Amino acid sequence: MNPQPAFLLHKRPYRETSALVELLTLEHGRVRAVAQGVQRPGSRSRSRLQPFAPLHVTWVGEGELKRLRLMESHGAAALLAGEGLLCGLYANELLARVLPVEFPVAEVFAFYTALLEALPRPEGRAAALRRLELSLLEALDAAPRFAEPDGRGLDPQRRYRFDIASRAFVPGEPGIDGRTLRLLAAGDWGEPGLAGPAKAVTRAALAPLLGARPLRSRELMRQLAEKRRARQDSVREL
């Protein structure tokens, strides 16, 4: 096979010197594989196989679990820290949890690449995450339908709740106003003031795919937000 552009989503030790890895690849989607010898001290592959670093890989095997043969660096890893790092970990965990194995998602790969470019800049993170989430939902035929369940358009003056069964919006409180939802439907995910509603919509649409088990990265984000609020309260008291 030709070398595949890829990113590491998850890695865990396997036997003495190997690792089980989850990769996001351009043409084959999520690939599970054994990376032999990468845990061995001094292994060149060990330094290459890092999150957020572009790779070129090949593998062999007919079953669901492959064996990596070639693994080459194809550029520097995105330099992420703090909130940007947590957002990257969230994207990796989400894709590893939701994407079926070997389900081609070239558009998701493109939005993931764009996300890594955006994460070092705080102002671009939220919109880039929402675009990745929406591309994932569209690939899995689970994207929200910005209409009422019967297909009628959304009333800008009404408030709506997301309905999981129909993937549409039903009138109700608490909810999001129809005008905001229509802006999101037009693709204005990065417009000022829409970050909160956009996050609420994608989170509701992703919930059935994720099931009851929470994402660890979301818990880390919540803890970080609580620490920030505590620091702000301390400053106000001073």
From TrEMBL:
What superkingdom does the record give? Bacteria
An example Pfam family from this entry, by short name, is: RecO_N
Asked if DNA damage is a keyword of the record, the answer is yes
Mind listing the UniProt keywords for this protein, alphabetically?
A: DNA damage, DNA recombination, DNA repair
Q: Does the keyword Glycoprotein apply?
A: no
> InterPro entries annotated for this entry?
DNA_rep/recomb_RecO_N, NA-bd_OB-fold, RecO, RecO_C
Q: Could you tell me which residue ranges the DNA replication/recombination mediator RecO N-terminal domain spans? A: 4-72
The record's comment on protein family reads:
Belongs to the RecO family.
Primary role = Involved in DNA repair and RecF pathway recombination.
PANTHER family per UniProt: DNA REPAIR PROTEIN RECO
Its protein name is DNA repair protein RecO
Q: Which organism is it from?
A: Halomonas flagellata
